[in-house]
């Protein structure tokens, strides 16, 4: 008796469910390599001999890698296939994460961190394109899932790195723990690789793709890059320096790590709610007002009374940086095609991370110059102004294809 063949509907459902899982576990791994650094930065500085300046380089390294890789990721995806390049990115994350726990000098640690961060950047830039390609009718919902698991990865690594280091005997074994989810993501991503089997035809049509140079001639590309850049400058400064700010205000290391956990953990529900909301309300100006005002109040509290209601300032800062899932949704919602999404995401992230490099690096330099945290936090607060101006212009804009009159999807 022959084995019954699965129905096409069931096969498609299983494939879609597998892709949801693959995207979710991929997203979980797109921040821990960076966000685990902040809570144990004092130990890292002592153990790996990082000065204030080199610690500033370390905290700004994610933005530098994302800027460089963001510029080349769409071209690599067109040439070799988006699923394959994301797979390469996961391998790089694993190699960099493992190898940097074995070194004790700053140059090697920074170089191996850069390897892992380059892998993170590849997946980070291309994931919105995968969402658009596989779930074109549910971009808002799938972006919500992707953003949710990404935020869980940030919050879990921020909140548990210190307890893990205390339980396991240092930051090295704690960092090794975060390699386990990367292995899980690699296994989950393997079934996605066959989607690039027809890549020869895709490559033949690559000339009709949207280049980053084309996006560079659009108003939307630059506005989204500026919006993303000033948001990321704040986010990575918080990842890298918020525990140090709270420790200087009198909190214990564990307490400061918990504040970073709040600042990142509150983003978990928001990471799902904001893209889902935007799926029904594609021009969320009121939501952006809430985000900006919350961030401003949080920074004021951190400036003038950091040890008074520290959890409240951390929570408000979380709201203030929650424009990130909004931007993720906008990558897919301001394009009508997978290639448009990849090009817009790649250009905006390349521009954005060039801007964002200045955030954590400037905080480290200003702190060294002033020997305190008042002026670095004040600098963070000023970044809200250009972010909000660009954000309001982006949420009121049209699609990227509308600004590319030569593109076949323009005007659709």
Describe this entry's structure for a reader.
It is a single chain. This protein has 412 residues and is mainly alpha-helical. It is built from 21 helices and no strands. It has helices at residues 8-28, 32-35, 41-48, 52-80, 82-99, 106-134, 139-168, 171-177, 180-189, 199-204, 212-215, 219-248, 253-265, 267-280, 285-304, 310-320, 323-333, 338-356, 358-370, 374-382, 384-395. The chain is globular and about 55 Å long.
Helix/sheet category:
mainly alpha
Could you tell me how far the N terminus lies from the C terminus, measured between alpha carbons in angstroms? Answer: 52 Å
Largest sheet: none
Low-confidence stretches: none
Please compute the radius of gyration using only Cα atoms.
21 Å
Number of helices: 21
List the helices and strands and how they pair.
Layout lengths: L7 H21 L3 H4 L5 H8 L3 H29 L1 H18 L6 H29 L4 H30 L2 H7 L2 H10 L9 H6 L7 H4 L3 H30 L4 H13 L1 H14 L4 H20 L5 H11 L2 H11 L4 H19 L1 H13 L3 H9 L1 H12 L17
Helix pairs in contact: 1-6, 1-7, 1-9, 4-5, 4-6, 4-12, 4-18, 4-19, 5-6, 5-9, 6-17, 6-18, 7-8, 7-13, 7-14, 7-17, 12-13, 12-18, 12-19, 12-21, 13-16, 14-17, 15-16, 15-20, 15-21, 17-18, 19-20
